[in-house]
Predict the 3D structure of the following.
Amino acid sequence: MDRSQTTPGAVEWQQSAGSAGVLRFTGDWTLPHFSRLEAQLDAIKPRLPETPDVDFNDVGRIDTAGAGLIAVALGPKCLQWLAEHDCDVPQELRGLLDTVSEAVAEIYAHRPPPPRNFGFTDLLADIGASVIHVGQLGATLLAFIGLTLETFVRTCWRPRRWRITSLVAHMEQTGLHAVPIVALLSFLIGAVIAFLGATALRQYGATVFTVDLVSYAFLRELGVLLTAIILAGRTSSAFTAQIGSMKVGEEIDAMRTMGLDPMELLVLPRVQALVIVTPLLTFLSMLAGLVGGGLVCWFALDITPSMFISVFQNDTPLRYLWLGLAKAPIFAFLIAVIGCLEGFKVRGSAQSVGERTTSSVVQSIFLVIVVDALAALFFMEMNW
């Protein structure tokens, strides 16, 4: 390599009959000639095979800018092979080419994937991946439900294993502290339903049936559904954050090291507490909704409280109350199990805690609404 030569660099693709062709580099491949060399390579690149033969014998001076252009044109794998195996590469270039090829290969490895062309095939692939993910979530949830039930059966016959203090503490946290928000929201929703019913029924002269609308809605559906949604947003997220924080702090690993069962210490008291307090909160929600609807009927429709109670007693079957309360323990169990399961899925960072908390709320609300819809269809078919 003649260092006294100052010829500007050039690249030429020489192809003759009977040969695959040679990519010949000549002159100085340095930064001052970068733009012109880049234009030459862009013009030649579409005609190059995947692994062209290369001739570096006439190259003068070369710096990292020129070596980078060559690396981008040939690709990091081809340049790496040339630097290691091609005997025609001058010895003085081998170190530079080797270093640049490694750097370019690392850049390629960390380069973000190109944007996908979302066509019909990609849409089907995304739908399939989503279905597989949902199936995996369902299988994991069923397995965790089985583990929870197994732990309950194993400990219910051993009173010494009961965690009464933890159970009472979680009942206070999930039940007593949730009373104000459950009562207030149910009261307001009851008032809104009464307003809407009165507006729709006034034109038919049947405003008295607003009482039936409010009572049917809250006893059968809204009382338990509102309570479950509030607990999904309030309690399920709290369970996930608590267990997730313990997972990040390696407290659960410490429990297992000491021979303690995290299912027995962490999951079971939370599930039992929520199953116990949810029917009570549901009953409170029903009462608050009826009070809100009754006040609207009193002040807007001139239906006195005594008349409201009389119509309520005569037109509302008692089974509506039991149907609403029967769904409460099921919703509570699902909410508590999902919250605890997502907490155990946390993987060592605050970001993971936030992601799993969001996931637990979304899954809980979604599953509660799905189960409620299935229960409504079942009750309708059974004429309950």
In short: Residues 10-110 form a domain with the Transcription Regulator spoIIAA fold (CATH 3.30.750.24). Strands lie at 10-14, 22-29, 53-62.
